[in-house]
Amino acid sequence: MQDGEIFQFIPQAPPVVLVDRIITADEARTICAFQVKPEGVFVSDGVLSESGLTENMAQTAAAGVGYACHQRNEEVPVGYIASIRNLIIHELPPTGSELYTEIMVTDSVMDVSFVRGTIHVDSRLIAECEMRIFLQQQTTDLS
C-alpha cells in the first residue's frame, strides 16, 4: 500500500488517523499496522493512551469495511461504535512502537457488526476488546 492510500478506506483525516496501512483484509478479518508518533493527538507522556488504542481498533475495523467496499466498487459506509465490552489494556505502547491490530468479525446482524479486536507490539498482546459497530448505509437523495 502506498503512502496516503489508507485515506480511501477510512473516514478519518489527520491528525486523528491511527492506521498507516492494511496488511490483510477480507470479509472476516483485517490486520493493520500503525507506528506511534510523538506528535499524535492520543499521545501523552511518550505513550499512546487507552483512547488511542481503542480508536486504533475502531479504525482498523473501518479500514476493513472500506477495503471490502472499494473492492466491490461500493460507497464506503460511515461506522459508529455502538458499544465496547471487555476492554483490557495490558500496556501502553511508547512512541516509535509498531502496532499490529487485528479485527475479527464474529457476527453481523442487519447493520451491526460484532467484532473482536487485539493489538500486538512485537509478540506481546497489549490490548483487546469486543465492539459492536453500527454501519450507516448511504442513502441517495431522490429529489
Looking at CATH, the homologous superfamily is Hotdog Thioesterase
How are the strands of the biggest sheet laid out side by side?
1-2-6-7-8-5
Structural category: alpha+beta
CATH architecture: Roll
Q: Into how many domains do the coordinates divide? A: 1
Distance between the termini: 39 Å
Question: Outline, from the CA principal axes?
Answer: globular
Largest sheet: 6 strands, antiparallel
Total strands: the figure is 8
**Helical run tally:** 1
Summarize the helix and strand pattern as letters.
Answer: EEEEHEEEE
The low-confidence runs, each spanning 5 or more residues with pLDDT under 50, are none
**What is the percent of helical residues?**
10-25%
CATH class: Alpha Beta
Indicate the radius of gyration in whole angstroms.
15 Å
CATH topology: Thiol Ester Dehydrase, Chain A
Provide the residue-averaged pLDDT: 91
What percent strand? 35-45%
Provide key terms for this protein.
single chain, 143 residues, alpha+beta, Thiol Ester Dehydrase, Chain A, six-stranded antiparallel β-sheet, globular
